[in-house]
Design a protein that fits this description.
Radius of gyration: 22 Å
CATH superfamily of the largest domain: ATPase, nucleotide binding domain
Structural class: alpha/beta
Strand content: 15-25%
Number of helices: 16
Mean pLDDT: 95
CATH architecture of the largest domain: 2-Layer Sandwich
CATH topology of the largest domain: Nucleotidyltransferase, domain 5
Largest sheet: 6 strands, mixed
Distance between the termini: 68 Å
Low-confidence stretches: none
């Protein structure tokens, strides 16, 4: 009996990941190729879509060889990726510039212009999205001002995985979460908001059709088949936002399920079966029809740890840093970090916030600083949980995933700060698994969404030390006060740097 497989691809910040799963259960092969985040100015975050496509063309043949299968055994392809990135595509299907990433904060002035032109509360009620550094509209305004010639050549505006789907199939399409998170989409009418499009200086014609994740949006073209080794005609589904695919693939599928992603950015996702919006959080469609994910994203999380390792660790790797900081006590000897290294998205929506080490003394060591970074990031997660609980959302279980979940110290600090046990998903491949499964649903390789469970394996939970949690609750109040008291200083600094008028 022949075996059938599905290919999942995740376009991530630091790498393009490939995953082949067996429809009967199990992972046949995994592969990751490096991608580059560019930050040519302090508030900028860009990537090269052509680098992603180059990785696709290199990675697909490699993953097929690694899985020891031929392309004819791939039933369908699903792609996930960062959202909502902004990619300008010309008539030839080529990107006109590097993508502007979701955590890019260059459009500070345009955000203010946008807010001045609309009723923010009304926009939020219609779109479910606050006007923030993530919003597509202000970024488009920035492009019209600063790169008008490129903007004039734009035929399509797309997101990360949408662009890869386009290169695979030749058919332009948007997945529904790019539309929702763009801040330009009326979630009640499920259609673009013409007034917001006008303000953003973009037309409907420049936005491809919107699809649900498991919708088949095209088939592998002859050109893509020649470049990737995939079989011509293989179905490609719309795919999913990376954090949504990841949440589904760790088992978030009922009310009260919460996922904390210890990645380069810090995601917090909460599953619910009704449409609710919260001004401090984002809203996404779940990959499962009629479900939603109310969620937050910290602009900097694991990226701060990487920055610290690369610049101040003396050559230690992450494991060695963990060992060195293991015995540091709660509060890092009076040292607190504000983790707003490239501004912040949820829950404060402040693109001019900055990172702060507060309480430094000559007694602090490298280990204290590292421990304080883990605590500061964890306070950011706790802030999101406080918002959820204040809105009446009960948390029934918390799962943890992404690369940082392998760190016993980071898991323990996070558990102690938030006061909940953490269920770690063993050897979790991340968003690529969700993308592959969604592709399977699109071609009826699976009959129900609950079949994802055969790909999920849990490790022993990390339990909180409740005595530490009580201490952290007091430190958290100081953490919050530090931000509020420094907001005027952040504004002055942004003006001095020429980021605001």
């Amino acid at each position: 009996m022949s075996r059938n497989f599905l290919l999942g691809i995740d376009v991530g910040t630091t790498g393009t990941k490939f995953l082949v799963i067996d429809t009967a259960g199990g992972i046949a092969a995994e592969l990751t190729l490096t991608a580059t985040l560019h930050s040519p100015q302090a508030t900028w975050a860009e990537e090269d879509p052509l680098e992603w496509w180059k990785n696709i063309c290199k990675g697909v043949p490699e993953i097929l060889r690694k899985a020891q299968i031929d392309s004819g055994q791939i039933l369908a392809v699903g792609v996930s990726g960062m959202v909502p990135t902004t990619i300008l595509v010309n008539r030839e299907g080529q990107p006109l510039r590097r993508s502007i990433q979701q955590n890019d904060a260059r459009s500070i002035i345009e955000i203010d212009e946008f807010k001045a032109a609309v009723d923010e509360s009304d926009v939020f009620r219609r779109t479910g999205s606050a006007i923030s550094q993530q919003s597509i509209g202000p970024k488009l305004l920035w492009l019209t001002k600063n790169e008008p010639r490129l903007f004039d050549q734009t035929v399509w505006v797309m997101g990360s995985y949408d662009y890869i789907n386009y290169r695979l199939t030749g058919s332009p399409a948007l997945e529904q979460n790019w539309a929702l998170e763009s801040g330009l989409f009326d979630i009640h009418k499920k259609d673009w908001d013409d007034n917001l499009l006008l303000l953003s200086k973009i037309s409907r014609d420049q936005l491809p059709p919107v699809h649900a994740p498991s919708d088949i949006v095209g088939h592998i073209s002859r050109e893509a088949a020649a470049l990737t080794g995939l079989k011509t005609g293989t179905p490609v589904v719309a795919g999913s936002a990376d954090h949504v695919a990841s949440a589904f693939s760790v088992g978030l599928k009922q009310n009260g399920d919460l996922l904390i992603k210890l990645g380069g950015a810090g995601d917090v996702l909460y599953s619910l079966d009704r449409l609710e919006i919260n001004e401090c959080l984002f809203l996404d469609y779940h990959v499962i029809p009629d479900l939603y994910l109310i969620n937050g994203c910290m602009a900097s999380s694991g990226s701060i740890i990487k920055w610290y390792r690369d610049n101040f660790s003396g050559g230690l790797d992450y494991t060695e840093l963990d060992v060195e900081a293991w015995d540091i006590q709660v509060g890092s000897n009076g040292l607190i970090l504000l983790p707003y290294f490239i501004g912040e998205k949820t829950p404060i929506f402040d693109p001019i916030a900055r990172g702060v080490f507060f309480g430094l003394t000559l007694q602090h060591t490298r280990a204290h600083l590292y421990h304080a970074i883990l605590e500061g990031i964890s306070f950011g997660f706790y802030h999101h949980i406080q918002v959820l609980e204040a809105a009446g959302f009960d948390i029934n279980r918390v799962r943890v995933a992404n690369g940082g979940a392998r760190s016993k110290l980071w898991r323990q600090v996070t558990s102690d700060v938030i006061g909940h046990p953490l269920e770690e998903v063993a050897n979790h491949p991340g968003s690529s698994l969700g993308a592959a499964f969604v592709a399977g649903m699109g071609v009826s390789a699976f009959t129900e969404w609950g079949e994802i469970e055969k790909f999920i394996h849990l490790k022993d939970p990390t339990y909180p030390n409740m005595e530490s949690h009580e201490k952290y609750k007091s430190l958290y109040k100081l953490y919050r006060n530090l931000y509020e008291s420094n907001r005027p200083n952040f504004a002055v600094l942004a003006k001095l740097e020429g980021l605001t008028g």
